[in-house]
TrEMBL record:
InterPro entries membership: PAP, PAP/fibrillin_dom
Name listed for the protein in its UniProt record: Plastid lipid-associated protein/fibrillin conserved domain-containing protein
Superkingdom of origin: Eukaryota
Keywords assigned by UniProt, alphabetized: Plastid, Transit peptide
Chief place of localization: plastid
Compartment(s): Plastid
Domain Plastid lipid-associated protein/fibrillin conserved: from-to ranges: 87-259
Signal peptide: none
A single Gene Ontology CC term: plastid
Pfam families reported in the protein's UniProt record: PAP_fibrillin (PF04755)
Length: 269
Protein backbone atom coordinates (compact mmCIF):
# COMPACT_ATOMS: atom_id res chain seq x y z
CA UNK A 1 0.00 0.00 0.00
CA UNK A 2 4.10 -2.07 9.03
CA UNK A 3 6.77 -6.67 10.21
CA UNK A 4 5.88 -9.76 7.58
CA UNK A 5 6.63 -6.73 5.53
CA UNK A 6 3.66 -5.55 3.71
CA UNK A 7 5.66 -3.05 1.88
CA UNK A 8 3.85 -2.29 -1.30
CA UNK A 9 7.03 -1.40 -2.95
CA UNK A 10 6.75 0.13 -6.38
CA UNK A 11 8.94 -0.33 -9.45
CA UNK A 12 11.69 2.25 -9.62
CA UNK A 13 12.28 2.47 -13.36
CA UNK A 14 10.33 1.87 -16.58
CA UNK A 15 10.97 -1.86 -16.42
CA UNK A 16 8.54 -4.65 -15.51
CA UNK A 17 8.45 -5.11 -11.73
CA UNK A 18 10.25 -8.07 -10.24
CA UNK A 19 8.28 -11.24 -9.74
CA UNK A 20 9.58 -11.83 -6.21
CA UNK A 21 7.86 -10.99 -2.97
CA UNK A 22 9.75 -7.73 -2.44
CA UNK A 23 6.61 -5.67 -2.76
CA UNK A 24 5.26 -4.29 0.40
CA UNK A 25 1.95 -2.86 1.37
CA UNK A 26 2.93 0.39 2.88
CA UNK A 27 3.06 3.53 1.61
CA UNK A 28 5.68 9.40 2.90
CA UNK A 29 7.91 12.34 2.79
CA UNK A 30 9.31 14.85 5.19
CA UNK A 31 6.90 15.02 8.03
CA UNK A 32 5.69 18.32 9.32
CA UNK A 33 6.32 19.47 12.84
CA UNK A 34 3.56 18.16 15.09
CA UNK A 35 0.99 20.65 16.24
CA UNK A 36 -1.19 20.68 19.31
CA UNK A 37 -4.81 21.48 19.62
CA UNK A 38 -8.18 20.00 20.33
CA UNK A 39 -9.45 20.40 16.80
CA UNK A 40 -8.76 18.17 13.84
CA UNK A 41 -6.88 19.52 10.87
CA UNK A 42 -6.16 18.13 7.44
CA UNK A 43 -3.24 19.19 5.32
CA UNK A 44 0.47 19.59 5.93
CA UNK A 45 0.43 19.28 9.70
CA UNK A 46 -0.81 16.63 12.06
CA UNK A 47 -3.14 18.05 14.66
CA UNK A 48 -2.67 15.94 17.73
CA UNK A 49 -6.30 15.33 18.61
CA UNK A 50 -7.06 14.04 22.07
CA UNK A 51 -8.90 10.95 20.85
CA UNK A 52 -9.52 8.88 17.73
CA UNK A 53 -12.27 10.17 15.54
CA UNK A 54 -14.87 9.10 13.07
CA UNK A 55 -16.77 10.81 10.28
CA UNK A 56 -20.27 12.15 10.65
CA UNK A 57 -21.98 14.58 8.35
CA UNK A 58 -18.75 15.49 6.60
CA UNK A 59 -17.09 16.41 9.91
CA UNK A 60 -15.07 14.45 12.41
CA UNK A 61 -16.30 13.41 15.80
CA UNK A 62 -14.34 12.12 18.76
CA UNK A 63 -13.99 8.36 18.75
CA UNK A 64 -15.30 6.16 21.54
CA UNK A 65 -13.52 3.23 23.08
CA UNK A 66 -15.16 -0.16 23.40
CA UNK A 67 -15.89 0.49 27.08
CA UNK A 68 -17.11 4.08 26.84
CA UNK A 69 -20.62 3.08 27.85
CA UNK A 70 -19.41 1.97 31.30
CA UNK A 71 -19.46 4.43 34.22
CA UNK A 72 -16.13 6.09 34.88
CA UNK A 73 -15.77 4.41 38.28
CA UNK A 74 -15.59 1.05 36.45
CA UNK A 75 -13.13 2.15 33.77
CA UNK A 76 -11.13 4.65 35.81
CA UNK A 77 -11.30 7.04 32.83
CA UNK A 78 -8.94 4.63 31.05
CA UNK A 79 -10.10 5.79 27.63
CA UNK A 80 -9.24 9.41 28.39
CA UNK A 81 -5.89 8.46 29.88
CA UNK A 82 -5.02 6.29 26.87
CA UNK A 83 -6.03 9.11 24.51
CA UNK A 84 -3.81 11.58 26.36
CA UNK A 85 -0.93 9.10 26.34
CA UNK A 86 -1.45 8.45 22.62
CA UNK A 87 -1.28 12.18 21.92
CA UNK A 88 2.03 12.47 23.78
CA UNK A 89 3.49 9.36 22.16
CA UNK A 90 2.50 10.52 18.67
CA UNK A 91 4.32 13.79 19.26
CA UNK A 92 7.43 11.94 20.43
CA UNK A 93 7.26 9.56 17.48
CA UNK A 94 6.98 12.38 14.93
CA UNK A 95 9.88 14.21 16.54
CA UNK A 96 12.05 11.09 16.47
CA UNK A 97 11.48 10.28 12.79
CA UNK A 98 11.54 13.88 11.51
CA UNK A 99 15.28 13.98 10.60
CA UNK A 100 15.35 10.57 8.89
CA UNK A 101 13.72 11.31 5.49
CA UNK A 102 11.24 8.41 5.79
CA UNK A 103 14.15 6.26 6.95
CA UNK A 104 16.20 6.59 3.74
CA UNK A 105 18.79 8.83 5.38
CA UNK A 106 19.16 6.64 8.45
CA UNK A 107 22.52 4.89 8.56
CA UNK A 108 22.82 1.59 10.44
CA UNK A 109 24.27 3.60 13.31
CA UNK A 110 21.30 6.01 13.18
CA UNK A 111 18.83 3.13 13.25
CA UNK A 112 20.60 1.48 16.14
CA UNK A 113 20.71 4.73 18.06
CA UNK A 114 17.07 5.55 17.34
CA UNK A 115 15.58 2.10 17.79
CA UNK A 116 17.70 0.70 20.61
CA UNK A 117 18.71 3.67 22.75
CA UNK A 118 17.58 7.16 23.64
CA UNK A 119 17.10 9.70 20.86
CA UNK A 120 17.25 13.39 21.81
CA UNK A 121 16.12 12.56 25.32
CA UNK A 122 13.06 10.63 24.11
CA UNK A 123 12.17 6.99 24.33
CA UNK A 124 13.61 4.89 21.55
CA UNK A 125 11.55 4.80 18.38
CA UNK A 126 10.75 1.15 18.89
CA UNK A 127 9.59 1.76 22.45
CA UNK A 128 7.44 4.70 21.38
CA UNK A 129 5.73 2.63 18.70
CA UNK A 130 5.13 -0.26 21.08
CA UNK A 131 3.63 2.02 23.72
CA UNK A 132 1.46 3.74 21.12
CA UNK A 133 0.20 0.37 19.92
CA UNK A 134 -0.62 -0.54 23.52
CA UNK A 135 -3.07 2.39 23.84
CA UNK A 136 -4.72 1.81 20.47
CA UNK A 137 -8.46 2.33 20.98
CA UNK A 138 -9.53 1.00 17.57
CA UNK A 139 -9.46 -2.72 18.25
CA UNK A 140 -10.95 -3.79 14.90
CA UNK A 141 -9.47 -1.39 12.32
CA UNK A 142 -10.85 -3.31 9.34
CA UNK A 143 -14.34 -2.40 10.56
CA UNK A 144 -13.51 1.27 11.11
CA UNK A 145 -14.20 4.16 8.71
CA UNK A 146 -10.98 5.71 10.00
CA UNK A 147 -8.99 3.31 7.83
CA UNK A 148 -10.54 4.46 4.56
CA UNK A 149 -8.78 7.11 2.49
CA UNK A 150 -5.33 8.19 1.31
CA UNK A 151 -2.36 8.04 3.71
CA UNK A 152 1.10 9.56 3.33
CA UNK A 153 4.14 7.53 4.34
CA UNK A 154 6.19 9.23 7.05
CA UNK A 155 8.60 6.48 8.01
CA UNK A 156 9.38 2.89 7.10
CA UNK A 157 12.12 0.33 7.62
CA UNK A 158 11.40 -1.24 4.19
CA UNK A 159 14.44 -1.05 1.91
CA UNK A 160 12.30 -2.18 -1.04
CA UNK A 161 10.44 1.13 -0.77
CA UNK A 162 13.31 3.41 0.22
CA UNK A 163 15.97 1.92 -2.11
CA UNK A 164 18.79 3.34 0.07
CA UNK A 165 21.42 1.43 -1.94
CA UNK A 166 20.70 3.58 -5.00
CA UNK A 167 22.18 7.04 -5.58
CA UNK A 168 19.89 9.63 -4.08
CA UNK A 169 18.86 11.03 -7.46
CA UNK A 170 17.53 7.58 -8.50
CA UNK A 171 15.39 7.09 -5.42
CA UNK A 172 11.75 8.15 -5.18
CA UNK A 173 12.11 11.54 -3.53
CA UNK A 174 8.55 12.79 -3.96
CA UNK A 175 5.79 11.87 -1.56
CA UNK A 176 4.58 8.28 -1.36
CA UNK A 177 0.97 7.48 -0.64
CA UNK A 178 -1.05 4.44 0.30
CA UNK A 179 -4.81 4.28 0.03
CA UNK A 180 -6.99 1.66 1.69
CA UNK A 181 -10.72 1.07 1.42
CA UNK A 182 -11.83 -1.57 3.89
CA UNK A 183 -15.39 -1.59 2.56
CA UNK A 184 -14.29 -2.63 -0.94
CA UNK A 185 -11.18 -4.52 0.26
CA UNK A 186 -8.90 -2.59 -2.10
CA UNK A 187 -5.49 -0.98 -1.57
CA UNK A 188 -3.24 1.21 -3.70
CA UNK A 189 0.31 2.55 -3.43
CA UNK A 190 1.29 5.66 -5.33
CA UNK A 191 4.72 7.16 -5.89
CA UNK A 192 5.08 10.74 -7.02
CA UNK A 193 8.22 12.39 -8.43
CA UNK A 194 10.12 11.20 -10.43
CA UNK A 195 8.53 7.87 -11.47
CA UNK A 196 4.83 8.22 -10.55
CA UNK A 197 4.48 4.44 -10.33
CA UNK A 198 1.38 2.81 -8.86
CA UNK A 199 0.28 -0.61 -7.68
CA UNK A 200 -3.18 -1.84 -6.69
CA UNK A 201 -4.14 -4.88 -4.65
CA UNK A 202 -7.03 -6.90 -3.28
CA UNK A 203 -7.25 -7.40 0.48
CA UNK A 204 -8.33 -10.63 2.16
CA UNK A 205 -9.15 -10.21 5.88
CA UNK A 206 -7.40 -12.73 8.13
CA UNK A 207 -8.72 -11.24 11.38
CA UNK A 208 -10.14 -7.81 12.40
CA UNK A 209 -6.73 -6.13 12.07
CA UNK A 210 -4.70 -8.22 9.63
CA UNK A 211 -5.09 -8.72 5.87
CA UNK A 212 -3.47 -10.76 3.14
CA UNK A 213 -2.56 -8.58 0.17
CA UNK A 214 -2.71 -9.81 -3.41
CA UNK A 215 -1.36 -7.33 -5.95
CA UNK A 216 -3.17 -7.21 -9.26
CA UNK A 217 -1.79 -4.36 -11.42
CA UNK A 218 1.26 -2.14 -11.57
CA UNK A 219 1.40 1.09 -13.55
CA UNK A 220 4.71 2.46 -14.79
CA UNK A 221 4.67 6.28 -14.83
CA UNK A 222 0.96 5.92 -13.92
CA UNK A 223 0.29 5.02 -17.56
CA UNK A 224 1.50 1.56 -18.53
CA UNK A 225 -0.48 -1.23 -16.81
CA UNK A 226 1.31 -4.49 -16.06
CA UNK A 227 -0.47 -7.46 -14.53
CA UNK A 228 1.14 -8.58 -11.29
CA UNK A 229 2.83 -11.99 -11.19
CA UNK A 230 1.21 -14.57 -8.94
CA UNK A 231 4.01 -14.20 -6.41
CA UNK A 232 3.05 -10.58 -5.73
CA UNK A 233 1.51 -10.88 -2.28
CA UNK A 234 2.10 -10.21 1.39
CA UNK A 235 0.36 -9.45 4.67
CA UNK A 236 -0.29 -6.28 6.64
CA UNK A 237 -1.34 -5.79 10.25
CA UNK A 238 -2.73 -2.47 11.46
CA UNK A 239 -1.45 -2.03 15.00
CA UNK A 240 -2.47 1.58 15.70
CA UNK A 241 -5.20 3.70 14.11
CA UNK A 242 -6.83 7.05 14.72
CA UNK A 243 -8.09 9.81 12.44
CA UNK A 244 -4.57 11.21 11.94
CA UNK A 245 -2.00 8.43 12.28
CA UNK A 246 -1.68 4.78 11.34
CA UNK A 247 1.03 2.29 12.31
CA UNK A 248 1.25 -0.97 10.36
CA UNK A 249 3.58 -3.94 10.40
CA UNK A 250 4.29 -6.19 7.45
CA UNK A 251 4.95 -9.91 7.17
CA UNK A 252 8.68 -9.39 6.55
CA UNK A 253 9.30 -7.48 9.77
CA UNK A 254 8.95 -3.94 8.43
CA UNK A 255 7.35 -1.01 10.21
CA UNK A 256 5.26 1.70 8.55
CA UNK A 257 4.10 5.02 10.00
CA UNK A 258 1.57 6.99 7.94
CA UNK A 259 -0.57 10.10 8.31
CA UNK A 260 -4.07 10.61 6.87
CA UNK A 261 -4.32 13.26 4.17
CA UNK A 262 -7.62 12.55 2.37
CA UNK A 263 -10.38 10.45 3.98
CA UNK A 264 -12.60 10.81 0.89
CA UNK A 265 -10.20 9.13 -1.56
CA UNK A 266 -11.44 5.88 -3.11
CA UNK A 267 -9.19 3.14 -4.52
CA UNK A 268 -10.13 2.23 -8.10
CA UNK A 269 -11.92 -1.07 -8.47
Amino acid sequence: MAPASLTLSLPRAPLPPPAGPGYSVAACSHLPAPSRGSGRRRGPGIALAAAPAGRQGGRWRAGVSSFSFLPSFFTGNKGEKDAEKAMRLKEELLTAIAPLDRGAEATPEDKERVEQSLFAGLLSLLQIVQQLEAVNQVKEPLKSDLLNGKWELLYTTSTSILQPQRPKYLRPFGKIYQAINADTLRAQNMETWPYFNQVTANLVPLNPRRVAVKFDYFKIFSLIPIKSPGSGKGELEITYLDDELRVSRGDKGNLFVLKMIDPTYRVPL
